[in-house]
Amino acid sequence: MSFTIAIDGPAAAGKGTISRAVAAHFGLAHLDTGLLYRAVGARVLTGEDAEAAARCLSAADLEADTLRSADVAQAASKVATIPQVRAALVDFQRAFARRAGGAVLDGRDIGTVICPEAEAKLFVTASAEIRAQRRYRELLEQGAETSLPEVLADVRARDDRDMTRADAPLKTADDAVIIDTSEMSIEAAVATAIAAVEARRAPDVAS
Ligand code: DC
């Protein structure tokens, strides 16, 4: 039996951490779908065509250590507006979602477009200021030279592009549980997410 958990939300809201913890808790495979778009973005930055790159991604592309940089994040958000790029990545994500034993996928359109039939859907969010602070700390730890205002501007630009694109924009699925992590510790956010999934897993016994 497969059980799909869809976790969506804007950049740096905590969905990566929550997704990994939820997957570990329930013993499920996890796919960070942002990595697919980042891998395409990284190849576009080297001069490749976006659609061609999306059609022939390999496992090695997903392991490149440049994928977490700010430049690649912006390139990912740009290639993600191209319908042909999104279409090229759909089958892989849907097959992953339906793998035996179940899976957790995180991204922007998992609960709305990739797996509208997912058994549990979470929408993880936080204020743009808090998300920028978190991303700023991460970038400093990676040794990047940047400033908080620059990171906030990047977060807002990416939010705007991800939410206003015509194809599969970032939005909350009607049946998603919204978790605002602005004022939450990581532990509290993970516990809230696990409780929300438990409630969907056993609707007959949840009180
Ligand atoms: O989750 P992330 O920050 O690694 O995602 C990078 C970009 O990829 C994001 O700005 C938009 C795009 N993306 C998308 O359009 N759909 C997804 N399911 C995941 C990511």
Largest sheet: 5 strands, parallel
Uncertain spans: none
CATH-defined superfamily = P-loop containing nucleotide triphosphate hydrolases
Number of strands: 5
List ligands, each type once.
2'-deoxycytidine-5'-monophosphate
What's the SSE blueprint?
Elements: E1 4-8, H1 15-26, E2 29-32, H2 34-45, H3 50-55, H4 70-79, H5 83-97, E3 103-107, H6 110-114, E4 120-125, H7 128-141, H8 148-164, E5 177-180, H9 186-201
Parallel strand pairs: 1-3, 1-4, 2-3, 4-5
The structure holds 2'-deoxycytidine-5'-monophosphate.
Key phrases:
Rossmann fold, binds 2'-deoxycytidine-5'-monophosphate, 5 strands, alpha/beta, five-stranded parallel β-sheet, 207 residues
Can you describe what's shown?
This protein has 207 residues and is α/β, with parallel strands linked by helices. Helix content is 52%, strand content 12%. The chain has one domain: P-loop containing nucleotide triphosphate hydrolases (Rossmann fold). The protein has helices at 15-26, 34-45, 50-55, 70-79, 83-97, 110-114, 128-141, 148-164, 186-201; strands spanning 4-8, 29-32, 103-107, 120-125, 177-180. The relative contact order is 0.22. The model has no long low-confidence stretch (mean pLDDT 95). Bound molecules: 2'-deoxycytidine-5'-monophosphate (DC). Residues 11, 33-34, 37-38, 73, 76-77, 80, 107-110, 158, 162 line the site of 2'-deoxycytidine-5'-monophosphate.
